[in-house]
Amino acid sequence: MPARKSPAKRPTRPKDASPEAGHNTRYMQLQKNHCFGCGTGNPDGMRLRFTYDEARACFVCKFRLAKRYTGPPGHCHGGIIATILDEAMGKVNKLRNVVALTSEITVKYLKPVPLKQPLHVESRELSVEGRKHINIAEILNGKNEVLARSQGVFIAIDPHKMFGKFVER
Fold first, then answer.
1. From CA 37, how far away is CA 8, in angstroms rounded?
2. The domain that contains 112 carries what CATH number?
3. Predicted structure pTM score
């Protein structure tokens, strides 16, 4: 029997979830969060901090990119832009209390993303069909101009089967 597509209702953050969304779900605690995007246990990571905006039904992260993320002079490397968008879209899966891994990501680079300027990324759910979650994200500058946009497909997994040896007991 094919999975039914869920209606496009606005998801809300679970009542027991903190407004800051990291990689720690309430049913699985990793030994230490070494995620390059949001992990505080990775000294080389970006340490992005996301919050959920209930009124707009999206995750938001404000940040500035340091010189170490340089691609073209004075601007961010495209791979880092893709990382930020992927990280933002991944947060959306927390709304459904699932761990879902990136299966596919499409990035549209609309304008160069500057270094050392105030930026923010926003992400939201587009649809869910069975284990398949489709999310979108945008990086915006201080004038709310969209600099990069993405869509990603995420597949929900059983974290205990996939990551069991990394889980605290």
1. 28
2. 3.10.129.10
3. 0.80
Query: Does residue 1 lie within any of the structural domains?
Result: no
For 63, residues 6+ apart whose C-beta sits below 8 A from its C-beta are: 46, 48, 84, 119, 120, 121
Domain that holds residue 105: 53-163
CA distances from 56 to 14, 40, 124, 162 (A): 15, 27, 9, 33
- Residues 54, 12 contacting (CB under 8 angstroms): yes
**Domain-embedded: residue 27:** no
- Three-class SS of residue 35? coil
Phi-psi sector, 74: left (phi>0), alpha (psi -120 to 50), beta: left
Residue 121's pLDDT is 98
Q: Report pLDDT for 11.
A: 61
Structure tokens at 74: 């004075």
Task: Confirm whether 37 is domain-assigned.
Answer: no
CA distance 157 to 54: 26
Question: Could you read off the pLDDT of 59-96 as tens digits, one per residue?
Answer: 999 999 999 999 999 999 999 999 999 999 999 999 99
Q: Which two tokens stand for residue 10?
A: 């606005």
Q: Do the bridges between strand 58-63 and strand 119-129 make them parallel or antiparallel, or are there none, so unpaired?
A: antiparallel
